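Researcher: Please predict.
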Amino acid sequence: MNRLLFLIGRRVDRTRGRVRAARERGRLQRVAPSDAPPPVDPSTVGGTLAVIPHQADDFLFFSTILARDAAEGRRVLTVHLTAGDDDEDGWYWQAREAGVRAAYADLHGVADRWIESTVTVAGAPLTQATLVGAPRVVLLFLRLPDGRPEGEGGARSGFASLRKLWEGDIATISAIDGSASHSLTSLLAILRGLLNDFQPDHIVTTDHVGAFSDGDHSDHHAAGYLTDLARAGYDREHVFTGFRGYATEHLPTNLDEEQIAAKKRLFFTYAPSDYKTPQTIEKAEQDLVGAWLTREYAI
């Protein structure tokens, strides 16, 4: 009976996420490349550049940074390296992107209205979403395939992964929307181009110190390694922070009640778009997500 109830609940959550993806696609304001807002305001510098592998990694592992930036009105550029597709149909990663947009809009206290466009960075086309009510907030999506926990990749993408690219097992990796193919060199060029254009004073990413197969997701480490390497030669004074991922479940709770409440609100604004994640705090507490919502550990 419990298994049947789980499957029914999962199907309901899946349908909800699919509906949200379709609705959000209809609401997006798309513009031609010539009319696209620039990725950065050339008259300002500073702000936070976050490089993450999957949608919601920032919410789970360093949401206090996002909350601080929102409170202070800082510029934010978040780069999503993979589509977070988990070897699913296209609607799933589109739903996850919709959830990310909704959460960032809520965090910054404005309507969930975005301008989507294609911008070119280091010769590569990237999907950009700019928050209409707070244009200092920009999301970029490379839509590379989710590499799966150990970097084995998924069948839909020919078992490609960032880990295999980093370790030299494959020469290139292609976006699942067909927009571009990237080598390790070209990915680093994109990140360096963003650093030089955006001029952040804080660079944030996932675990850049741990080793593959240490219990964290392979994409977390690959994103951290890429970001750490890309910032070599970046000459603006800045703070660089990597955050631990899955392993924080084994560490003591270190957020206060106000921080935990803010983190839960952000995550559960995103959650309806991702049927694979807990939809309520009760379900989260039966899952590892419940531990991640009460902890954040910088490296």
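Model: The chain has ten helices and ten strands.
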